[in-house]
């Protein structure tokens, strides 16, 4: 199951988080090639984050997947999620970092 955890210092108050979750789910599923029913998205706002020495809008993400990740997929995912964060939360693409974990099934427990 792919799981994308996103933390941002932007407040989510008044933000349509459902649209972010929905768009991120379909994006991750499409790019990785897994069913949407397997994708989990966790979105945390108002997290204290400093990026480049400032607290301007920024975000950090971690994506864990059992298979489906490679340099080309990772590049597409990073760009697509950055676009979502920029359009929905005004986080500039240059102030976003996404870390990838290609896990083995034996590494995870349910």
Automatic annotation (TrEMBL):
<protein>
    <recommendedName>
        <fullName>Macrophage migration inhibitory factor-like protein</fullName>
    </recommendedName>
</protein>
<dbReference type="Pfam" id="PF01187">
    <property type="entry name" value="MIF"/>
</dbReference>
<dbReference type="GO" id="GO:0050178">
    <property type="term" value="F:phenylpyruvate tautomerase activity"/>
</dbReference>
<dbReference type="GO" id="GO:0005615">
    <property type="term" value="C:extracellular space"/>
</dbReference>
<dbReference type="InterPro" id="IPR014347">
    <property type="entry name" value="Tautomerase/MIF_sf"/>
</dbReference>
<dbReference type="InterPro" id="IPR001398">
    <property type="entry name" value="Macrophage_inhib_fac"/>
</dbReference>
<comment type="similarity">
    <text>Belongs to the MIF family.</text>
</comment>
């Amino acid at each position: 199951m792919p799981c994308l955890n996103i933390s941002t210092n932007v407040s989510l108050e008044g933000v349509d988080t459902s649209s972010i979750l929905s768009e991120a789910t379909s994006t991750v599923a499409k790019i990785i090639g897994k069913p949407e029913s397997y994708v989990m998205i966790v979105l945390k706002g108002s997290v204290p984050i400093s990026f480049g020495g400032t607290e301007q809008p920024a975000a950090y993400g971690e994506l864990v997947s059992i298979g489906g990740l490679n340099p080309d997929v990772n590049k597409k995912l990073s760009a697509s999620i950055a676009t979502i964060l920029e359009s929905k939360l005004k986080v500039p693409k240059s102030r976003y970092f996404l870390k990838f974990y290609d896990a083995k099934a034996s590494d995870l427990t349910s």
